[in-house]
Amino acid sequence: QGFLFDDLITADTFIPLVSTSAVDFADVSFLAGFINLSTNLFPAANYGLVLSDHGGGLDDGVIFTDSLDDGANKFEEHGITVYMLESALASTDLYKDKSVSGDGKLGMIYYNACLMGSTGQADNTKDYFRYMIASEECSSGHTSYRHLLTGLNTDIAEGRSDREIAINIAKVYEKYPATHHGFDEYIGSIE
Fold this sequence. Notes:
Layout lengths: L27 H14 L6 E5 L4 H4 L1 E4 L2 E2 L4 E2 L2 E3 L1 H9 L2 H4 L9 E7 L6 H7 L3 E6 L10 H13 L4 H14 L3 E2 L2 E2 L3 E3 L1
């Protein structure tokens, strides 16, 4: 939220789904529950998942949560490793009920995080998506959410395939690149 989304998310476009206390966003059951809630509330022929936060590749994972001990909740800092992600995706209604998406796969998974574009990451999670969009390098994240979301809405409205959407996301990133310590950043789409 904040400066990136202030003009995109308004009272008219925001739909509050749940209200909770502290949440461990790197908890596998939380991610699986979020996917189930989303796919059950918003039925569709295809789905995509964006995992946006810090990335640490195969070993450290993505979506890091800070340590917390507020008396009611306690968890240590950690990320969702590739194996935890596999577990979360395998436990979703989408994957277990192939009638939802035909093959139980997400149309795409987009890692808006550093170091998540390895072939090992893709190979270990290939059963859960058709296309993966990620960076093998350090990444500051997608710099133009407005262009990304506008393009995504257009692609969906025009009935583009998962493949075309994945390629177009990489093209938007190429057109509006992020920089990290003065170096241009790149992402790629993997089938």
